[in-house]
Each structure stands twice: as structure tokens, then as C-alpha cells.
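Deliverable D5.2: sample structural annotation.
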Amino acid sequence: MRILIAPQEFKGSLAADEAAAAIASGIRSVHPDWTLDSLPMSDGGPGLLDAMRRAVKADTMAAVAEDALGRKVLARYVRIRATGEIVIEAAQANGLLHVKPGELDPLHADTFGVGELILDAAKAEPPRIIIGVGGSATTDGGAGMARAMGARFLDGAGNVLPRGGAALADLERIDWQPPTVLRGIELLVATDVSNPLCGPDGAARVYGPQKGATPAQVDQLEAALFRYAQVLRRHFGVDAANVPGGGAAGGLAAGLAVFLGARMQSGFDLVAATTGFNHRLAEADVVVTGEGRFDSQSTRGKVTGRVIEAARTAGKPVVVFAGSSLSTGGVEVRTITNIEPDPVASLAQAPELLKRVAAGWAATL
């Protein structure tokens, strides 16, 4: 039996490679003779750098940048040797990985550090910069990113607005000149989110609660992003509110598209092409994927949904391992909560529990 193990990160507990290792360990404990092909995946969020670095020869670079709360962190990105392209994982700067649950500040968190990373990467004069935007702790529409590149966001009295998404409610004017260091560099946004910046499926309403926003704060951020989109449209002539995928990473994707002319690209397709996913899928007998919480969002472009779709197209059986599940998606789903319902304990013991889930599944085959 040949098993392709292609999970994404289990948010808050396991990186994609750690999840793949735990699943492989569980399967191997029951069937040591099976061939296991471990392929940690990403759709542009955390794990993108690791996935790319495993697939191609690349140099790891680092820069000091601000996290979502303005604290200095050491953020990594990679330069692909064969092409000179640079791959940035925005979450290295503005990601939830730097912010403890009690520190979440959805109204004021911003993307300034992402702009710093892009500017640092541009010094190498790459032909292309690919920016994976998932896993953010921010909902500022990419305003912080642009601010790091010199943009000034002003209210009606000409005062510079404070950082964060909430302040954009008072936005009246933007002073902006594209940085010359980015001239001639193509920018791609790696994401598989199709949500727009504003509206019921927008950045604030869909993703704000994941970043600590209360219902009242969600309303506040939605109103601020709507105002931001109005000013962007007046300044740039672009309907920022409805840029497909613009709601990714709290609207960072929209900001990159409007301010820097970045275009959207499927993060999953990017990683899949680089890692030879289709070839490895064709050689597998069974496909395993997974994530922290499997729900209705999982089948809307996220890694788990894309792997399921690809396995079905190839006629391969597929199983999902998850921390918890609110949906079956029409496939077999095995969850950690079935053996450890306490969320605190399940997070603390995630590697061992995921191993047990995988072993239990393997024992049925």
C-alpha cells in the first residue's frame, strides 16, 4: 500500500510537516511495510516556506520586521536559486503565530511588517516576489503594508491616522507614491481564498472572529474597510471592495493588488506544481489530508478541499484527519476530539493524539 500524506497546518498546534510526521508515525506503527509519501502542503499561509524549501533548492533569508502588534521579530523568507524568485510568508510578520490568544487586538493589529519584508526582499532585485498571505492576525486591508512603503493615511483634517483597521473609518485621503525599489518586479499573491474585502463574505465578517473580534468589533471593522474601499476607489480607480480574493489575510491581498498591482495566484497550485503533487498523487493508493478544524470553509479552496477534489478526480480513496470537524464534506473524517474532547488537552497533546487517530484508521484497513 502506498499512502500520500498531504496535510496542511493544524492551526495553533502543529505545522504541516509536524502533522505529516505524526500521521506517518501512526500509520507505520500498524503497517510498517507500507510506503508512505509525506508531502506537507500549504495554500499560501504558514508552511509555504517549508513546502517550497523541500521541493527546490533555496536560500533562507531573514529580516527584522514588526509583528501585528508592532513588536520586532525575525522573519524568514526564501530565494529560489534557479530563478532568483523570492517567496514571502506574510505570517512571518503579521501572523497569529506571533500573538498569544490573550494578546489578540483585531482593531489595531496591522501589516506594517509585511511591507518591511517586501522591501527587504526587493533589495535582491528578484524578477518576482510571491507573497503567501494566510494565517494573519490583522484586518487592516493592507494599509500597514503600504504605510511601511511610505503611504500616508489622512483624516478630513489632514491628520495621519493611527495604525490598525478600525482607524480607517476616518480615512479621507491617501498620499502614495510606489517605491522605486519595486519597479520591474512582478508581485504575486498566493492564496486560495475567494472572499472579497467587504460584505457578508468579506474579511471582517468571515475572518474577524478568528482574530479575536467580537460581534461589535466585526461591525466596526466592516464599516472601516468599506470606507477604506471607497477612498481606494476614488484614489486608484479600482473597486477594492470586490477584488476577487481581496479579503484574504484581513484584506492584505486587496491592499497588495491595489497599491502594488499584485495579481492573485492559487497558493495550492503553486505549491502543488513545485512539489510534483499530481505525479505523487497518481502513484498513491490512498490519500490522507487534514487540518485543525474541518468545516464548510475547508472545501472552498483550502488545502484540504483541494486535496480531496484532486483525489476524487484521480479516483483515489481519501481520508481527512482533523482536530475537530463540523462537516464531513462527503469523505471519511477522523478527529482528535473523538478520543480527547477537551480542547486544551487536545492542543497540548496534538502530536500523540494525531498519531493515535492515524493508527486507529490504519488498523481498519
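Annotation notes: The chain has a mean pLDDT of 94. The radius of gyration is 20 Å.
The annotation will be released with the project's public dataset once the embargo ends.
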